[in-house]
Amino acid sequence: MKSLLIALAFGTVAQAQQPEITGQWIEPTGSAIRIDHCGSQLCMWVVAISRRAPAPFDVYNPDLAKRGRSLCGLEIGRGFTLRTPGEAREGTLYDPKSGKTYHGQLKLNGNKLELRGYIGIPLFGETQIWTRPYAPVKSCATAGEEK
Questions:
Q1: Could you tell me the residue ranges of all domains in the chain?
Q2: Which residue in 65, 66, 93, 107 has the fewest CB atoms around it within 10 Å?
Q3: What pLDDT, in 10s, does the model give residues 118-134?
């Protein structure tokens, strides 16, 4: 009986620690993105810019007036509806590497996040794999040259 109670307790803890989409993620060039709630939906912000990033400013934005703005703190995703703790859809993604905006969806796969950006339907898109950082990333406002 005691071992059954212990097993049930561990099962409850494991369920309570289900992975979620929210938190910090590292995208392929090494920059850090924070995904968090913004009202009833999810949004994404750049929180640290990698030295391997193409530029620290929004130089590819189609709006010439925005090309001088820093990527630090820039909202790059919005409007995602959380379907389950591990899946969100119906959002939009801004790609500062191209200046284009896409429809998007997010899906957890273990400790990786599959981010799919597409035009029209998901079939016509591309998937990036983001990973969780091993430790919290300092925001670009305080990270200086460390990132």
A1: 21-143
A2: 65
A3: 998 888 899 999 999 98
Query: In angstroms, rounded to a whole number, what is the distance separating the alpha carbons of residues 68 and 83?
Result: 36
Report the run of H or E that residue 35 belongs to, with start and end. strand 32-38
pLDDT digits (tens, 9 = 90+) for 44-95: 999 999 988 888 999 999 999 999 999 999 999 999 999 998 999 999 999 9
**Residue 107 host element (H or E):** strand 100-109
3-state secondary structure of 47: strand
| Three-state SS at 14 | helix
Q: Which CATH architecture has domain 21-143?
A: Beta Barrel (2.40)
